[in-house]
Amino acid sequence: MASVVGTFDSRDQAERAIEELKRKGFSDDRVSIVAKEDRVKGGDRGEGGLTMARGGNDLTGGTLTGGAIGGATGLLAGLGALAIPGIGPIVAAGPIAAGLTGAVTGGIVGGLVDLGIPEERGKYYENKVKEGKILAVVKADDNTVNDARNVLAKFGASDIEIH
Fold first, then answer.
1. Share of the chain above pLDDT 70, in %
2. Where are the extended beta strands (E) located within the chain?
């Protein structure tokens, strides 16, 4: 399996891309999202939106929490808030979230390496998250790698790479 990686400037772009990936059959265990916590707080709630909270703080909003990612049983059911040294509070969902909880000292780089992304590129993407970008990683097989890349591009992702 390959990892298709891209960064988004806005939560709205990331939400729409994830919604499209889900429509194309990419399951929650194949899509990861990482963002600084303040990038996914608050905002308008979409119809049927679900608020994921920790300690009374709204971690998500809009369609990201509703049907776009499958609601409470979808990707955000695994949403985790972590404090990463040198980055600060982040939220992560999908396969990368498990890797980050066990490797907080390795930062985002360690979680990306676990997904098959070379360490030097992992450092690059970690810096993008530090800058406030929203990182998406999609696991895709040979038959779906181009679909994943095209969806990320369609919704404005930059820095798209396949590893």
1. 66
2. 2-8, 31-36, 53-54, 57-58, 80-84, 88-93, 134-140, 158-162
